[in-house]
Amino acid sequence: MNSKVSTAPPHARTSEPATRATKVSIAGGLVGVFIELYDNAVYGFVAGTLAVVFFPSGAPTTSVLLTFAAFAIPFFFRPVGAAVAGSWGDRMGRKRVLMVLITVMALATGLVGLLPSYATAGAWGAVGLVLLRFVQGFAMGGEPGNGNSFLAEHAGEGRRGQVVSYANAATFVAMLLGTLFAALLTAVLSTSSMEAWGWRLPFLLALPLGVVGLVVRRLADESPEFTEAEEEGEVTVSPLREAFTSPGILRAMGMCVVLPLLNSSGYFVLFIYMPSFMKDEMHFSATEGLLVTAVMLAVGTFAVLYAGRLSDRFGRRKLLSTSAFGMVVIGFPCYWLLTRGSFTLAVVGAVLMSLCFAGTNGVMQVTLAELFPTRVRTVAYGVGYNAGTALFGGAAPLLVSSLIAATGSSWIPAIYLVLTSAVAGFAALRIQETAFSPLKR
């Protein structure tokens, strides 16, 4: 794609204050992102317990690998959800689809907390877990394209980076809540109590969260961009077909696969895999591993908001490329700090990596939304992004665990992070600057 940067000066943009209706609509877009990431965070943080509950084995490594395989399943179903729900969003509007998605996601997550264990129902509990993970995969696949497009379209000129960064911050808060909840349960419950019933509580919390989210989304207004396109007869009958038959849109979809590589690898290695890795490989206590993750998430929450604001002023490309190449530079030294066995050094290394990750994460979703025209935005964005997430994110814990088991090297996560960051950095240099232009129609 053309890498020419817009010459429009930042001060030439206008930014109008958000109305109350716009704020409610933005909140509606955020809430689904929160629940989606909360579920993923909880699953990763209690993966060790789930391995015992659903996949008992004489070999602990095998049980953990099976648990992470179940974690990866929905990510390979996400492109299907993106194609179906994205097509709905481009044909019928974002709001109605987002209401359906949050209902499906909350119910599927809550039902995980009600599944019988292996001791109670044998393999049927694991079968139920896998089936519910498929349902979650469908909902998760439809959420990014619809949810982030909805936010970008409500934001207005000069505020898109800031507004969509709220969704990125919501993901950090969701993961932080899941981390702290898991850390609290791990600290106050015995191992037997955690395996018997404690692991269920974080999943059951998704049910009341889903009710709140559904109410907020019901109060939201439809995207003004979609409403205008509908009024002007620009809504396409088959957005998925148009996305796959337009060379320009196909190229942008390819960018949606490679540009978020650091997002995918960084999220799943740093925040999902890392607690188990620190406990099993580095011999930290479970609580220490979760607390290191919690510190990363707390720092990242503020960093993504700042990154979104900076990108509105200086552009998306600079933030994305600087953050990705920053991870290339500090990845190995910071990972070395994580493996020293010192809680303090682990926190320092984790925070530095979290800052680089946040610099990409805070800008990524608005950048992807800006690559596409309104008529195919949710489906093209969703399919491209979820395909990359499935390949490089959902399978990351399983891949990393397998490579560590095969090689005996504890440096596999760092190698994976650095390599994917390098590819993402070069991809960022290839995109056209979109921060200073209106959304494509």
From TrEMBL:
Domain Major facilitator superfamily (MFS) profile: from-to ranges: 25-435
Subcellular location: Cell membrane
Topology term for the membrane: Multi-pass membrane protein
Transmembrane segments: 41-59, 65-85, 97-115, 121-142, 163-185, 197-216, 249-274, 286-307, 319-338, 344-364, 385-405, 411-431
PROSITE patterns found in the cross-reference section: MFS, SUGAR_TRANSPORT_1, SUGAR_TRANSPORT_2
InterPro entries named among the record's database cross-references: H+-coupled_symporters, MFS, MFS_dom, MFS_trans_sf, Sugar_transporter_CS
SUPFAM superfamilies: MFS general substrate transporter
Pfam family, one: MFS_1
Keywords: Cell membrane, Membrane, Symport, Transmembrane, Transmembrane helix, Transport
Main location as per UniProt: membrane
Family in the record: Belongs to the major facilitator superfamily. Metabolite:H+ Symporter (MHS) family (TC 2.A.1.6) family.
Name used for this protein in its record: Glycine betaine/L-proline transporter ProP
Organism: Streptomyces tremellae
